[in-house]
Amino acid sequence: MINKTGSLNRRFIIVILFTACFLVYFNSLDGVFISDDIPAIARNPELLFPWRFWMEPASLLNSLNLLIAGHNPFTYHLTSVLLHALNTILAFFFLSIFFGLEPSFLGALIFAVHPIHTEAVSWISGKPYLILFAFTLGNTLLYQRAVKEAKRLQPIAYLFVLLIFYYMTIRYYTYYLFPFLLILLDLTLGRARRNWRLWLPFFILAGIRFTAIRFQLIHRVNLLSGGPGVEPAWNNPILTVAHSLFSNLGLLFWPFKLTLYHEPIIASGILLGCEVILLFVFILSLIPIFKKEKILFFVLVFFILFISPTFSPIPISWMIAERYLYLPSLSLSLFSALIYDRYASRGSGLRNKILFLLVLIIAGYALRTILRNEDWRDPKRFWRQELKISPGSASVHNKMGDIYRIEGDFVRAIEELNKSLVIKPKDANAYNNLGVVYSDMGDKGEAASYYLKALEVNPKFTEAYFNLGNAYAALGKNKEAISSYRKALELKQDFLEACINLGVAYQNIGNNKESIIAYQKALQISPRAAIVHNNLAAVYYKENEYALAIKHLDLATKFGYQVNPEFLRLLEAHRKP
Q1: Cα torsion through 90, 93, 97, 98, rounded to 10
Q2: How many CB atoms lie within 10 A of CB 352?
Q3: Which of 282, 324, 338, 346 is the most exposed place for a label (fewest CB within 10 A)?
Q4: What angle do CA 149, 154, 155 make, to 5 degrees?
Q5: Is residue 275 a part of any domain in this protein?
Q6: What's the sign of the alpha-carbon dihedral 528, 532, 535, 537?
Q7: Residues 506, 483: contact at Cβ < 8 Å?
Q8: What are the φ and ψ backbone dihedral angles of 458, each rounded to 5 degrees?
Q9: What's the confidence (pLDDT) of residue 425?
Q10: Residues 531, 534, 535, CA angle at the centre, nearest 5°?
Q11: How far is Cα 195 from Cα 464, in angstroms, rounded to an integer?
């Protein structure tokens, strides 16, 4: 059954790991679009053009999913689970650099079922973190292959490592940490002296890429700070590093209070003081650990390295986010494999105890993952669960307000959104959502006032301009509606709904020429938009352009629009035999 080289054993391990991933994430496959999934996928017409995303592998996969199965969430979830299974297998091969088959298998199994991964796997918008892991570990394994032989570098493999690094740094800023991972690996394996020259090209490429993306990084800082012109808040760097490190480490070992928004971050002075002391002890211990146990050194520094973006004293990321831990969580797998490798050989009794403990941990993690997947399957359940875990989060109250609005409970929706504004008074999203609630209640005037408040807070809030345009249109203020739609389109040129509603507003004031221009732009964004073809047919009919009206009405019918029978009868009279 098992040959002397262990190849069959390794294949069997891969099958088990692949199966484990599907077993724990099977109940995520029928999940729906949640939170960022809706604007990024369900309402993103750009996904119809996959060639636009050759530099963004996660968006490329979403685009291909859309072309294959439309907006059926199943295919998107299946892609994520397959990626997680691939990453688990890559984790197994990565662990095999340091350990034998048995500890590597146990470590990879922990990675497969760990609950901290649900945000990256069960949430479709977490796909970039799956991609980052795959490219990081895959490229590391390729580097290992290129430099494994002491006196012979494999130049083709090394060149591919460089090319993948250059490609990934175009969009994935965390990938700039990749050269440091190679340095850490070479230091741990005792080959830094012979390989140090191989590190230099990575830093040269990183410098070249950084000059191209530095403005994008500045934009992200501005976005997280509150918008352009808002001075970013500086946090105490020592306190930030200490609290982030130990908060994320605690979440990794005890992943049972899981939430999309780990906010507000509250820590007492005593806790922060203890964390700072532990931080200094931790740093000072790294040197003796490196001398005595290099793999443990690798485990600790690996975690620090890939959680380091959360250490920034200016906001370039959230301090705590479960999806950020997808790659750093590999350190727990390494640590578990190390414990088993070091102590299991000291006797069958100790080995069985350690094995039993690891099996219990794996079973507990797997159960927690399955239960957490249930939250991700339904938006109402999801946000109610988030409110239990993060009752002080303005973002969660904001989302709960939207849930109550959808359910038709407008009183509770307004209560939740006002709670959000108490916590975060300058929250443009909360003002915008209040406008949507009042709009649904039929009070378009009050809705418009809240959209204007949202725009006072964030003058570049595209959705608020669009909603304001809708409110003005409902109030019969078509000129004001046109102005709002145009501002929305200035900020987002591919905003399909804004193009359509702009065309309708021009129709309402009798400006058919501008209406046609708006609809034609909408068709550039989405050529199969049936309602646009129908509206164009109506405009061309008024302009006595009967051939064009018939053409677009036929396209509207072809793409599934329920055409007005009376309008169809009128055009039939102008159809040439």
Answers
A1: 90
A2: 11
A3: 346
A4: 145
A5: yes
A6: negative
A7: no
A8: -135, 95
A9: 92
A10: 85
A11: 54
- Would you give the distance in Å from CA 166 to the centre of its chain? 21
Residues 393-421 have a mean pLDDT of 94
Q: Is 575 helix (H, G, I), strand (E, B) or coil?
A: coil
Q: Which sign, positive or negative, has the C-alpha torsion 241, 242, 243, 249?
A: positive
Contact 332, 114 (CB under 8 A): yes
- Please give the angle made by the CA atoms of 462, 122 and 63, to the nearest 5 degrees: 55
For residues 553 and 534, is the Cβ–Cβ distance under 8 A?
yes
Cis peptide, bond prior to residue 201, ω within 30 of zero: no
DSSP string, 333-368: HHHHHHHHHHHGGG-HHHHHHHHHHHHHHHHHHHHH
- Tell me how far apart the alpha carbons of residues 214 and 217 are, in angstroms, rounded to a whole number: 5
Terminal C-alpha separation, the chain = 76
Q: Are 298 and 185 spatial neighbours (Cβ–Cβ below 8 Å)?
A: yes
Tens-digit pLDDT profile for residues 32-90: 999 889 888 988 878 888 988 988 999 999 999 999 998 899 999 999 999 999 999 99
Q: How many CB atoms lie within 10 A of CB 35?
A: 18
pLDDT digits (tens, 9 = 90+) for 436-471: 999 999 999 999 999 999 999 999 999 999 999 999
Residue 504 resides in a domain: no
pTM metric for this prediction: 0.87
| CA-wise closest residue to 44 among 28, 30, 31, 58 | 58
Asked if residue 186 lies in contact with residue 161, where contact means CB atoms within 8 angstroms, the answer is: no
- Distance (Å, whole) CA 457 – CA 226: 9
Polymer length of the chain: 577
CA pair distance 512, 545, nearest whole angstrom = 12
Domain count across the chain:
1
The answer to the question of residue 302 being in a domain is: yes
**How far is residue 535's CA from residue 439's CA, in Å, rounded to a whole number?**
24
> In terms of residue numbers, what domain contains 200?
7-376
What are the b/e assignments for 394-426, b being 16+ CB within 10 Å? bbbbbbbbbbbbeeeeeeebbebbebbbebbee
Within a domain: residue 188?
A: yes
